[in-house]
Amino acid sequence: MVDLNKLSVEEKVGQMLMVGLGNKSYIKNVENLITKYKIGGVLLYKKDYKNYEELNKLVNRLRTLGRKNKIPLFIAIDQEGGRVNRMPDEFENLPSANILANKDLVGEASKVTGEMLKKTGFNFNFAPVLDIKRFKENQAIGDRAFSSDVEIVSKCGITYMHKMKEFNIVPVAKHYPGHGATAKDSHFTLPVIEETNERLEKEDIIPFKKAIKNGADVLLVGHLRIKRITHGYPASMSKSFVRKYIRKKNRFNGIVITDDIRMKAVRILYGTKRALIKAFKAGNDIVLFKYIPGDENSIDKILKEVKNRKINIAKINRSVRRILKVKEKYEIENEEIPYLENLPEDINVKINDIKNKVKGNVDGKD
Question: Could you tell me if residue 366 is inside a domain?
Fold first, then answer.
Protein backbone atom coordinates (compact mmCIF):
# COMPACT_ATOMS: atom_id res chain seq x y z
CA MET A 1 0.00 0.00 0.00
CA VAL A 2 1.22 3.49 -0.84
CA ASP A 3 2.55 5.41 2.16
CA LEU A 4 0.11 8.26 2.78
CA ASN A 5 2.81 10.33 4.47
CA LYS A 6 4.88 10.34 1.30
CA LEU A 7 2.15 11.85 -0.84
CA SER A 8 2.08 15.53 -1.70
CA VAL A 9 -1.02 17.68 -1.18
CA GLU A 10 -1.53 17.61 -4.95
CA GLU A 11 -1.43 13.81 -5.00
CA LYS A 12 -3.86 13.55 -2.11
CA VAL A 13 -6.38 16.01 -3.53
CA GLY A 14 -6.05 14.39 -6.95
CA GLN A 15 -7.13 11.03 -5.54
CA MET A 16 -10.39 12.65 -4.47
CA LEU A 17 -11.30 13.66 -8.02
CA MET A 18 -12.97 11.51 -10.66
CA VAL A 19 -13.34 13.24 -14.00
CA GLY A 20 -15.71 12.24 -16.78
CA LEU A 21 -14.36 12.51 -20.32
CA GLY A 22 -17.61 12.74 -22.28
CA ASN A 23 -16.02 14.54 -25.24
CA LYS A 24 -13.20 12.96 -27.24
CA SER A 25 -11.75 16.37 -28.06
CA TYR A 26 -10.93 16.85 -24.37
CA ILE A 27 -8.70 13.79 -24.08
CA LYS A 28 -5.50 15.87 -23.93
CA ASN A 29 -7.00 17.98 -21.14
CA VAL A 30 -7.94 14.92 -19.13
CA GLU A 31 -4.50 13.44 -19.70
CA ASN A 32 -3.06 16.65 -18.27
CA LEU A 33 -5.25 16.18 -15.19
CA ILE A 34 -3.75 12.72 -14.74
CA THR A 35 -0.13 13.79 -15.14
CA LYS A 36 -0.20 17.24 -13.51
CA TYR A 37 -3.02 17.02 -10.97
CA LYS A 38 -2.70 13.27 -10.29
CA ILE A 39 -6.46 12.68 -10.44
CA GLY A 40 -7.54 9.33 -9.07
CA GLY A 41 -10.15 8.27 -11.61
CA VAL A 42 -11.61 8.77 -15.07
CA LEU A 43 -15.20 8.00 -16.08
CA LEU A 44 -15.81 7.05 -19.71
CA TYR A 45 -19.03 7.45 -21.70
CA LYS A 46 -20.28 5.67 -24.81
CA LYS A 47 -19.61 8.70 -27.00
CA ASP A 48 -15.91 8.54 -26.09
CA TYR A 49 -15.40 5.59 -28.47
CA LYS A 50 -17.02 4.35 -31.69
CA ASN A 51 -16.31 0.68 -31.20
CA TYR A 52 -14.54 -1.91 -29.06
CA GLU A 53 -11.19 -1.31 -30.77
CA GLU A 54 -11.35 2.42 -29.97
CA LEU A 55 -12.35 1.64 -26.39
CA ASN A 56 -9.38 -0.68 -26.00
CA LYS A 57 -6.97 1.97 -27.30
CA LEU A 58 -8.45 4.67 -25.07
CA VAL A 59 -8.37 2.51 -21.94
CA ASN A 60 -4.75 1.56 -22.59
CA ARG A 61 -3.87 5.19 -23.24
CA LEU A 62 -5.22 6.08 -19.80
CA ARG A 63 -3.60 3.07 -18.17
CA THR A 64 -0.20 4.02 -19.60
CA LEU A 65 -0.48 7.44 -17.96
CA GLY A 66 -1.75 5.86 -14.74
CA ARG A 67 1.40 3.76 -14.48
CA LYS A 68 3.48 6.93 -14.29
CA ASN A 69 1.80 7.98 -11.05
CA LYS A 70 2.29 6.46 -7.61
CA ILE A 71 -1.35 5.39 -7.39
CA PRO A 72 -3.23 3.57 -10.19
CA LEU A 73 -6.35 5.03 -11.77
CA PHE A 74 -9.93 4.02 -11.27
CA ILE A 75 -11.24 3.60 -14.84
CA ALA A 76 -14.97 3.84 -14.41
CA ILE A 77 -18.15 3.21 -16.36
CA ASP A 78 -21.86 3.57 -15.66
CA GLN A 79 -22.97 0.14 -16.87
CA GLU A 80 -26.36 -0.98 -15.56
CA GLY A 81 -27.85 -2.48 -18.72
CA GLY A 82 -31.26 -1.50 -20.02
CA ARG A 83 -31.47 2.26 -20.54
CA VAL A 84 -28.04 2.84 -19.01
CA ASN A 85 -25.69 1.11 -21.43
CA ARG A 86 -22.22 2.55 -22.08
CA MET A 87 -20.61 -0.36 -23.94
CA PRO A 88 -19.70 -0.21 -27.67
CA ASP A 89 -22.37 -1.40 -30.08
CA GLU A 90 -20.57 -4.69 -30.81
CA PHE A 91 -21.74 -5.84 -27.37
CA GLU A 92 -25.36 -6.86 -26.89
CA ASN A 93 -27.19 -5.01 -24.13
CA LEU A 94 -28.64 -6.78 -21.12
CA PRO A 95 -32.28 -6.23 -20.09
CA SER A 96 -33.12 -3.68 -17.41
CA ALA A 97 -32.72 -4.40 -13.70
CA ASN A 98 -36.48 -4.67 -13.17
CA ILE A 99 -36.83 -7.38 -15.82
CA LEU A 100 -33.82 -9.32 -14.57
CA ALA A 101 -35.12 -9.28 -11.00
CA ASN A 102 -38.54 -10.52 -12.11
CA LYS A 103 -36.91 -13.45 -13.90
CA ASP A 104 -34.39 -14.15 -11.13
CA LEU A 105 -31.50 -13.62 -13.53
CA VAL A 106 -29.57 -10.92 -11.67
CA GLY A 107 -26.75 -13.29 -10.72
CA GLU A 108 -26.17 -14.43 -14.31
CA ALA A 109 -26.43 -10.92 -15.73
CA SER A 110 -24.08 -9.34 -13.20
CA LYS A 111 -21.54 -12.13 -13.77
CA VAL A 112 -21.53 -11.45 -17.52
CA THR A 113 -21.25 -7.72 -16.82
CA GLY A 114 -18.31 -8.27 -14.52
CA GLU A 115 -16.48 -10.39 -17.11
CA MET A 116 -17.20 -7.87 -19.87
CA LEU A 117 -15.94 -4.92 -17.83
CA LYS A 118 -12.85 -6.76 -16.61
CA LYS A 119 -11.79 -7.80 -20.11
CA THR A 120 -12.38 -4.33 -21.55
CA GLY A 121 -10.27 -2.67 -18.87
CA PHE A 122 -12.74 -1.12 -16.44
CA ASN A 123 -12.26 -1.52 -12.70
CA PHE A 124 -15.06 0.67 -11.25
CA ASN A 125 -18.78 0.46 -12.07
CA PHE A 126 -21.54 2.85 -11.03
CA ALA A 127 -23.97 0.06 -10.18
CA PRO A 128 -26.03 -1.47 -8.59
CA VAL A 129 -29.02 0.83 -8.30
CA LEU A 130 -30.46 0.33 -4.81
CA ASP A 131 -33.35 2.74 -5.24
CA ILE A 132 -36.86 1.45 -4.68
CA LYS A 133 -39.33 1.91 -7.51
CA ARG A 134 -42.13 3.97 -6.02
CA PHE A 135 -43.69 6.23 -8.66
CA LYS A 136 -44.83 5.13 -12.11
CA GLU A 137 -43.94 8.60 -13.39
CA ASN A 138 -40.40 8.39 -11.99
CA GLN A 139 -38.53 8.19 -15.27
CA ALA A 140 -35.22 8.97 -13.55
CA ILE A 141 -35.30 5.52 -11.94
CA GLY A 142 -38.22 3.51 -13.32
CA ASP A 143 -37.07 0.13 -14.66
CA ARG A 144 -33.52 0.84 -13.48
CA ALA A 145 -34.73 -0.23 -10.03
CA PHE A 146 -34.86 -3.95 -9.33
CA SER A 147 -38.26 -3.71 -7.68
CA SER A 148 -40.72 -1.77 -5.56
CA ASP A 149 -40.11 -4.40 -2.86
CA VAL A 150 -37.38 -3.52 -0.36
CA GLU A 151 -36.28 -7.12 0.16
CA ILE A 152 -35.98 -7.84 -3.56
CA VAL A 153 -33.95 -4.67 -4.12
CA SER A 154 -31.66 -5.62 -1.23
CA LYS A 155 -31.17 -9.20 -2.37
CA CYS A 156 -30.52 -8.28 -6.00
CA GLY A 157 -28.21 -5.41 -5.11
CA ILE A 158 -26.08 -7.58 -2.84
CA THR A 159 -25.90 -10.30 -5.50
CA TYR A 160 -24.78 -7.73 -8.06
CA MET A 161 -22.10 -6.37 -5.73
CA HIS A 162 -20.67 -9.79 -5.02
CA LYS A 163 -20.46 -10.67 -8.72
CA MET A 164 -18.61 -7.43 -9.48
CA LYS A 165 -16.14 -8.24 -6.71
CA GLU A 166 -15.40 -11.65 -8.25
CA PHE A 167 -13.87 -9.76 -11.19
CA ASN A 168 -12.20 -7.08 -9.03
CA ILE A 169 -14.66 -4.47 -10.30
CA VAL A 170 -15.49 -1.93 -7.60
CA PRO A 171 -19.31 -1.78 -7.34
CA VAL A 172 -20.96 1.52 -6.44
CA ALA A 173 -24.26 1.36 -4.53
CA LYS A 174 -26.46 4.27 -5.63
CA HIS A 175 -28.28 6.70 -5.16
CA TYR A 176 -28.15 7.09 -1.37
CA PRO A 177 -30.53 7.75 0.44
CA GLY A 178 -32.90 6.63 -2.33
CA HIS A 179 -33.82 8.39 -5.57
CA GLY A 180 -36.99 6.34 -5.71
CA ALA A 181 -38.52 8.48 -2.98
CA THR A 182 -38.99 11.36 -5.43
CA ALA A 183 -40.40 11.48 -8.96
CA LYS A 184 -38.09 14.34 -10.00
CA ASP A 185 -34.86 13.85 -11.95
CA SER A 186 -31.70 15.40 -10.49
CA HIS A 187 -30.23 15.70 -13.98
CA PHE A 188 -32.63 18.61 -14.51
CA THR A 189 -33.80 19.89 -11.14
CA LEU A 190 -33.16 19.49 -7.41
CA PRO A 191 -35.55 16.74 -6.25
CA VAL A 192 -37.09 17.14 -2.82
CA ILE A 193 -37.88 14.06 -0.75
CA GLU A 194 -41.03 14.80 1.22
CA GLU A 195 -41.03 11.54 3.18
CA THR A 196 -40.37 11.51 6.90
CA ASN A 197 -37.05 10.26 8.15
CA GLU A 198 -38.89 7.35 9.79
CA ARG A 199 -40.28 6.11 6.47
CA LEU A 200 -36.94 6.52 4.72
CA GLU A 201 -35.30 4.45 7.46
CA LYS A 202 -37.93 1.71 7.16
CA GLU A 203 -37.90 1.56 3.37
CA ASP A 204 -35.51 3.45 1.09
CA ILE A 205 -32.39 3.26 3.23
CA ILE A 206 -32.80 -0.46 4.05
CA PRO A 207 -31.11 -1.75 0.84
CA PHE A 208 -28.13 0.51 1.53
CA LYS A 209 -27.89 -0.65 5.13
CA LYS A 210 -27.93 -4.27 4.02
CA ALA A 211 -25.37 -3.55 1.33
CA ILE A 212 -23.08 -1.98 3.93
CA LYS A 213 -23.45 -5.04 6.17
CA ASN A 214 -22.57 -7.21 3.18
CA GLY A 215 -19.37 -5.38 2.35
CA ALA A 216 -20.26 -2.38 0.20
CA ASP A 217 -17.08 -0.37 -0.33
CA VAL A 218 -18.52 2.64 -2.21
CA LEU A 219 -21.75 4.60 -1.82
CA LEU A 220 -22.88 7.27 -4.28
CA VAL A 221 -24.81 10.14 -2.68
CA GLY A 222 -27.54 11.64 -4.82
CA HIS A 223 -28.32 15.32 -5.32
CA LEU A 224 -31.50 14.97 -3.28
CA ARG A 225 -32.86 17.47 -0.77
CA ILE A 226 -34.58 15.87 2.21
CA LYS A 227 -36.96 18.07 4.16
CA ARG A 228 -36.03 18.50 7.83
CA ILE A 229 -32.75 16.63 7.33
CA THR A 230 -30.42 18.29 4.80
CA HIS A 231 -31.56 21.84 5.69
CA GLY A 232 -32.03 23.08 2.12
CA TYR A 233 -28.86 21.51 0.76
CA PRO A 234 -28.64 18.50 -1.56
CA ALA A 235 -27.60 15.44 0.47
CA SER A 236 -24.35 15.38 -1.51
CA MET A 237 -23.46 18.85 -0.22
CA SER A 238 -24.68 18.42 3.36
CA LYS A 239 -21.94 17.99 5.96
CA SER A 240 -24.40 16.87 8.62
CA PHE A 241 -25.96 14.31 6.28
CA VAL A 242 -22.70 12.74 5.09
CA ARG A 243 -21.25 12.61 8.59
CA LYS A 244 -24.39 11.88 10.61
CA TYR A 245 -26.38 9.54 8.39
CA ILE A 246 -23.72 7.82 6.34
CA ARG A 247 -20.69 7.71 8.60
CA LYS A 248 -22.14 7.53 12.11
CA LYS A 249 -25.65 6.13 11.82
CA ASN A 250 -24.79 3.50 9.23
CA ARG A 251 -21.21 3.02 10.45
CA PHE A 252 -19.92 3.25 6.90
CA ASN A 253 -16.21 3.75 6.54
CA GLY A 254 -15.86 3.07 2.83
CA ILE A 255 -15.73 5.60 0.00
CA VAL A 256 -18.51 8.17 -0.33
CA ILE A 257 -18.68 9.58 -3.85
CA THR A 258 -20.95 12.32 -5.15
CA ASP A 259 -23.14 12.05 -8.18
CA ASP A 260 -21.86 14.25 -11.02
CA ILE A 261 -21.74 17.83 -9.73
CA ARG A 262 -22.32 19.04 -13.30
CA MET A 263 -25.89 17.81 -13.11
CA LYS A 264 -28.32 20.69 -13.34
CA ALA A 265 -29.59 20.20 -9.79
CA VAL A 266 -26.21 21.32 -8.42
CA ARG A 267 -24.83 23.40 -11.27
CA ILE A 268 -27.62 25.98 -11.05
CA LEU A 269 -27.32 26.27 -7.27
CA TYR A 270 -23.57 26.61 -6.97
CA GLY A 271 -21.57 26.42 -10.18
CA THR A 272 -18.73 23.93 -10.48
CA LYS A 273 -16.12 25.70 -8.35
CA ARG A 274 -18.41 26.28 -5.36
CA ALA A 275 -19.95 22.82 -5.69
CA LEU A 276 -16.50 21.23 -5.70
CA ILE A 277 -15.52 23.04 -2.51
CA LYS A 278 -18.84 22.30 -0.80
CA ALA A 279 -18.58 18.62 -1.73
CA PHE A 280 -15.08 18.44 -0.23
CA LYS A 281 -16.13 20.21 2.94
CA ALA A 282 -19.26 18.04 3.29
CA GLY A 283 -17.06 14.99 3.80
CA ASN A 284 -17.28 13.20 0.44
CA ASP A 285 -14.20 11.16 -0.40
CA ILE A 286 -14.47 11.48 -4.19
CA VAL A 287 -16.14 14.24 -6.19
CA LEU A 288 -17.34 13.30 -9.67
CA PHE A 289 -17.69 15.81 -12.51
CA LYS A 290 -17.74 15.71 -16.30
CA TYR A 291 -14.79 17.73 -17.59
CA ILE A 292 -15.06 21.03 -19.41
CA PRO A 293 -12.12 23.33 -20.20
CA GLY A 294 -11.32 25.57 -17.25
CA ASP A 295 -11.88 22.95 -14.58
CA GLU A 296 -8.18 23.26 -13.81
CA ASN A 297 -9.01 26.58 -12.14
CA SER A 298 -11.49 24.84 -9.84
CA ILE A 299 -8.91 22.25 -8.86
CA ASP A 300 -6.36 24.99 -8.21
CA LYS A 301 -8.91 26.63 -5.93
CA ILE A 302 -9.30 23.40 -3.94
CA LEU A 303 -5.54 23.06 -3.60
CA LYS A 304 -5.31 26.63 -2.37
CA GLU A 305 -8.07 26.02 0.21
CA VAL A 306 -6.25 22.95 1.52
CA LYS A 307 -2.86 24.65 1.66
CA ASN A 308 -4.40 27.67 3.43
CA ARG A 309 -6.05 25.26 5.93
CA LYS A 310 -9.58 26.26 4.94
CA ILE A 311 -10.13 22.59 4.20
CA ASN A 312 -8.85 20.35 6.98
CA ILE A 313 -5.87 18.25 5.86
CA ALA A 314 -6.86 15.58 8.41
CA LYS A 315 -10.14 15.19 6.52
CA ILE A 316 -8.22 14.86 3.25
CA ASN A 317 -5.98 12.21 4.79
CA ARG A 318 -8.97 10.18 6.00
CA SER A 319 -10.51 10.22 2.54
CA VAL A 320 -7.30 9.28 0.75
CA ARG A 321 -6.71 6.46 3.22
CA ARG A 322 -10.14 5.03 2.34
CA ILE A 323 -9.41 5.33 -1.38
CA LEU A 324 -6.03 3.64 -1.06
CA LYS A 325 -7.59 0.84 0.98
CA VAL A 326 -10.19 0.12 -1.73
CA LYS A 327 -7.62 0.28 -4.53
CA GLU A 328 -5.46 -2.20 -2.69
CA LYS A 329 -8.40 -4.48 -1.83
CA TYR A 330 -9.49 -4.69 -5.48
CA GLU A 331 -5.91 -4.99 -6.71
CA ILE A 332 -6.32 -1.96 -8.96
CA GLU A 333 -3.49 -1.84 -11.47
CA ASN A 334 -2.99 -0.10 -14.78
CA GLU A 335 -1.46 -2.93 -16.77
CA GLU A 336 -2.15 -3.04 -20.51
CA ILE A 337 -5.40 -4.72 -21.55
CA PRO A 338 -5.13 -7.02 -24.59
CA TYR A 339 -7.48 -6.53 -27.53
CA LEU A 340 -9.50 -9.74 -27.82
CA GLU A 341 -11.00 -9.98 -31.28
CA ASN A 342 -13.60 -12.56 -30.29
CA LEU A 343 -14.59 -10.90 -27.01
CA PRO A 344 -17.84 -9.28 -28.21
CA GLU A 345 -18.96 -12.54 -29.80
CA ASP A 346 -18.12 -14.57 -26.68
CA ILE A 347 -19.92 -12.11 -24.39
CA ASN A 348 -22.91 -11.86 -26.71
CA VAL A 349 -23.49 -15.63 -26.56
CA LYS A 350 -23.92 -15.30 -22.80
CA ILE A 351 -26.06 -12.17 -23.02
CA ASN A 352 -28.35 -13.70 -25.63
CA ASP A 353 -28.75 -16.78 -23.44
CA ILE A 354 -30.03 -14.49 -20.68
CA LYS A 355 -32.33 -12.69 -23.14
CA ASN A 356 -33.77 -16.01 -24.22
CA LYS A 357 -34.47 -16.92 -20.62
CA VAL A 358 -36.24 -13.59 -20.16
CA LYS A 359 -38.42 -14.36 -23.18
CA GLY A 360 -39.09 -17.86 -21.90
CA ASN A 361 -37.61 -19.51 -25.00
CA VAL A 362 -35.32 -21.80 -23.03
CA ASP A 363 -37.61 -23.50 -20.55
CA GLY A 364 -40.93 -22.79 -22.19
CA LYS A 365 -42.10 -20.62 -19.31
CA ASP A 366 -43.39 -17.08 -19.48
Answer: no
